[in-house]
Amino acid sequence: MTTLPPALDATAQAAADAAEPFAATAPHDRARALVAVADALEAHADELVGVAAAETGLTEARLRGELKRTAVQLRLFADTIVDGEYLDVRIDEADPDFALGVRPDLRRYLVALGPVLNFAASNFPFAFSVAGGDTAAALAAGCPVIVKAHSGHPELSQRTAAVVAEALAGAGMPDGVFQIVTGQEAGVALLRDPRIAAGSFTGSIHAGRLLADIAASRPAPIPFFGELGSVNPVVVTEAAVRERGDAIATGFVASVSGSAGQLCTKPGFVFVPAGHGLDDRIAAEAAQIAEHRLLNPRIADSYKDRRDAVASAPGIRSIADGEIRIAEDGHGWARPSVYAASLADVAAAGAAVLDESFGPLAVLVEYGPGDDLVGALDTLFEGNLTVTLHVGEREDDERIRGLVQAATRHAGRVLFGGWPTGVAVTPAMQHGGPWPATTNDASTSVGTAAIGRFLRPVSYQDAPAVLLPAPLRDDNPWGVPQARARAGESLNWGSHAAN
Amino acid sequence: MTTLPPALDATAQAAADAAEPFAATAPHDRARALVAVADALEAHADELVGVAAAETGLTEARLRGELKRTAVQLRLFADTIVDGEYLDVRIDEADPDFALGVRPDLRRYLVALGPVLNFAASNFPFAFSVAGGDTAAALAAGCPVIVKAHSGHPELSQRTAAVVAEALAGAGMPDGVFQIVTGQEAGVALLRDPRIAAGSFTGSIHAGRLLADIAASRPAPIPFFGELGSVNPVVVTEAAVRERGDAIATGFVASVSGSAGQLCTKPGFVFVPAGHGLDDRIAAEAAQIAEHRLLNPRIADSYKDRRDAVASAPGIRSIADGEIRIAEDGHGWARPSVYAASLADVAAAGAAVLDESFGPLAVLVEYGPGDDLVGALDTLFEGNLTVTLHVGEREDDERIRGLVQAATRHAGRVLFGGWPTGVAVTPAMQHGGPWPATTNDASTSVGTAAIGRFLRPVSYQDAPAVLLPAPLRDDNPWGVPQARARAGESLNWGSHAAN
User: Fold this and answer.
1) Which residues are in the Aldehyde dehydrogenase domain (chains A, B) (predicted)?
2) Contacts of A484 in chain B (CB under 8 A)
3) What are φ and ψ of residue B415, in 5° steps?
4) What phi and psi, each to the nearest 5 degrees, are found at residue A95?
5) Do the Cβ atoms of B365 and B271 come closer than 8 Å?
6) Taking CB atoms and an 8 Å limit, are A436 and B220 in contact across chains?
7) A28: nearest Cα among A471, A475, A447, A484
């Protein structure tokens, strides 16, 4: 039935064999295992950060912060599952007098999907990689994980995987709950394997679309959660420039240049009123940003091409023309590039300017009093992870409300007066958005709600108590929240209708 | 941008124009509109049931029950949305001391996806059609609906649509929130249109796969919720036959023959111990079932072919050989057909026996003491809407637990001691299952949880109070439940770890 090479087949089978024992572990035990992984990562921080810095060119400070975030993420998922609320237990008591005739006893909860194949990202070697968000969410849900390592940090991937696997084994989790594979071919072959129940991915639109199409065209399609491309438009109103133009310029340059602009939430386009007067401040801020190595030579080449395309588009003005230097080893070193053009010129340039530039580059889109900003958001861009609005202190007129509405249409997160980089890992975070920001708009890849992508509901009808899963039993051995529809309570509309 | 014919284009544009005004209506107002639709359907019951009976051949009793179910469904969704809990509001208060540094104020809730294209089913002219479950769920979520009418009941579709549209308008809902189109070409063209945000479908594997592939391969893919094929295996243990064999035979024949077997949850395969001794009882029960018209000539032809294939497979024994009669008008009339064969013969026959037969036909799969039932469930069938277990009074040994586990793997609902037809519309219902039962295993098409398929999350970061959507505001004008993560409370694992 399978056509995988033997080693890969063994990996898939180990994940399949682990699926039910792992799904059956109590949330409290799985939570302790996640905490053990977090502890182990922090205990190995010096070693891991050293390897990561050498392989990615990211700064030690950034990598230490990212490792901490990765550990906190695991702890947050431990918190999320420990009380069992995530199981969404619903119990409909049998009701002989239900509006549609006798209603059976029905009990529903969420079960783990099964083995998850997680394609790691290049730009977050910890937080979106081997032990990153999707791994944490899948393990929290009770799904075995196979990580397809990113080729940009191979040694870090293997070392991290060893730390994770050892911590999980030490916490008593079954064999096969966590494995790693390398190479694009292996990833694609596993994605086609019937034992894989879901895929997750962070990377380019091109690769993401390819994998999403494979997942959708399998004999039995599976869900695929891809986070692809986003240019994160920002709109700054005239009032905001008047009130705090300099602070906006400073925050903007910091957000564009952090991690050399290699962040999925980098603000790529900033709508500013023509005549904003921020050029000098932006140029001065950009001049202070040191040259930063890009993640790998491939990204450097592609960034160079994008930068050339933007810089040479008709109507483009350079505010900070950060050079990119390709070193002898093929690595590229970049400083921030900020360009500006009128809204009309940007629209006329099309993809040459509007496509994502993965690196420290942004374009100020200068609008005039008659320009339609909502129309620009609607037509220039597809879906985005974020849209950011910088408005004046008490600005809440129809134009602003229209912008909030447009932002809500096109993004998973709408920010006010801040910058989209730096994604908080919390219950209310939404890191997603309409295509091509993600392949699956109903999901998030950051924040504790991400656990939902790896769960599916199952109902049990009239089950004998001894055969029910623990969270559905009346004696509730795990003490999970159980939402009950009691007999006679099942149709309440009558009372509401009186309002 | 669009290539739709003008009338269809106007339909899509009306839905798109309605999307934001409709999404912005208060849950209470939308709930009242759903109740108005329910009231209107019930007020028109005599007329609608008459048209439905003529077009579908279903009995008046069945159709009256189905209309009532459809109305109750609308009322249940009104109940579901009226308190706003479905919005899943999460508020993370700003926290200067969060584990990863300053945390912003983040507020997340679920918003309507946008216009939904709902492909109606043939076999439930009310409950899975114009005003059926997907329509109710989408309207409840605040999504405009375009129904692609099923060709099997054209006049009923138009009359129902008129009743629904008038009731929604009377309840003050915006123009364009509910529309109907006819013809496969129109459906496919709309599914490709960028203004459509999601598709839903109930029907065959063939048509469902075709539409799912279209939705997945759009330039911007959209979610597609298809309910396709299911054969709903039933396992009866030796103890169950001993304890209540006659009752099982009676319940089985009723479930197979209800609505002439044209139900997605019809039990198509029943595993019984060899030597069960139920043949006579089953034959006697089947003999009492009157001839029933199948929904339409196409279904009759295809049922006839399936029945011929099963009846002529090697090793098949006939218990009740219900003839199918094709009348001069092309309509087919059928009585229940029950066949039996050994597990080995069924496995050897493959698709000829194992494919779904849409009509009043089921196969008893006779197993011996050495046969592996879990293996049979794992290998003979793909995903199913239901798996049913009939076990003895106090049977809870390892074999039974293995069957429960296998049932959970392969179905969205696991029943004990009952029959899968007759799906309760309640909070704990799960009407879904792994491919090809559905295209999207994390969703349900019956029960109030179905609203989730038409929602997506959006977060607002540091938004001024005046610009926040009503459910996210601290003054909470709609009075919805708001889950708050307060400053300092954000990482609780420390305390849990002490357990």
Assistant:
1) 8-367
2) none
3) -110, 150
4) -140, 105
5) yes
6) yes
7) A471
Closest Cβ opposite residue A424 in set B78, B104, B449: B104
- Both A205 and A277 in one domain: the answer is no
Q: At what angle do helices B205-217 and B184-192 cross, to 10 degrees?
A: 30
CB of B492 within 8 Å of any CB in chain A? yes
Task: Measure the CA–CA gap between B28 and B32, rounded to whole angstroms.
Answer: 6
Q: How far apart are CA A241 and CA A248, in angstroms?
A: 8
Q: Residue A403: which residues within 8 A CB-CB, separation 6 or more?
A: A235, A373, A374, A377, A389, A391
CA distance A331 to chain B (A): 31
Residues A89 and A203 in one domain: yes
C-alpha A275: how far from its chain's center?
36
A223 → closest Cβ in B65, B213, B442: B442
Hey, is the C-beta of B485 within 8 angstroms of any chain A C-beta? yes
Q: Is the CB of B113 inside 8 Å of chain A's CB atoms?
A: yes
Is some CB atom of chain B closer than 8 A to the CB atom of A94? no
Domain membership of residue A78 (yes or no) is: yes
Q: How far apart are CA A49 and CA A64, in angstroms?
A: 6
Digit-by-digit pLDDT tens for chain B (499 residues) are 458 999 999 999 999 999 999 999 999 999 999 999 999 999 999 999 999 999 999 999 999 999 999 999 999 999 999 999 999 999 999 988 877 778 899 999 999 999 999 999 999 999 999 999 999 999 999 999 999 999 999 999 999 999 999 999 999 999 999 999 999 999 999 999 999 999 999 999 999 999 999 999 999 999 999 999 999 999 999 999 999 999 999 999 999 999 999 999 999 999 999 999 999 999 999 999 999 999 999 999 999 999 999 999 999 999 999 989 999 999 999 999 999 999 999 999 999 999 999 999 999 999 999 999 999 999 999 999 999 999 999 898 999 999 999 999 999 999 999 999 988 888 899 999 999 999 988 889 888 889 999 999 999 999 999 999 999 999 999 999 999 988 876 554 433 332 2
Active site residue A227: yes
Nearest CA in chain B to A456: B442
- Asked if residue A166 is part of any domain, the answer here is yes
Whether A396 and B106 lie within 8 Å, measured CB to CB: no
Q: What is the dihedral of CA B137, B143, B144, B146, to 10 degrees?
A: -50
Kindly state the tokens that stand for A225: 């959660």
For residue B98, the domain's CATH number is 3.40.605.10
Shared domain for B273 and B353, answered yes or no, is yes
A65, HSE (Cβ side, Cα atoms, 13 Å): 14
Q: Are B476 and B89 in contact (CB under 8 A)?
A: no
Q: Is B141 on the interface with A (CB under 8 A)?
A: no
Active-site amino acid positions of B? 227, 264
Statement to judge: residues A52 and A120 lie in one domain: yes
* Alpha-carbon distance B435 to nearest alpha carbon in chain A (angstroms): 6
CATH of the domain at B280: 3.40.309.10
Query: CA torsion A92→A93→A97→A101, rounded to 10°?
Result: 50
Tokens of residue A409, six digits: 């249409």
Measure CB to CB from residue B28 to each of A442, A458, A499 and give the nearest one: A499
Which candidate in A227, A285, A356, A366 is catalytic?
Answer: A227
Residue B110 within a domain: yes
CB distance from B449 to chain A under 8 Å? yes
Cβ–Cβ < 8 Å for B236, B273: yes
A58 and A207 fall within a common domain: yes
Question: Are residues B439 and A223, on separate chains, in Cβ contact within 8 Å?
Answer: no
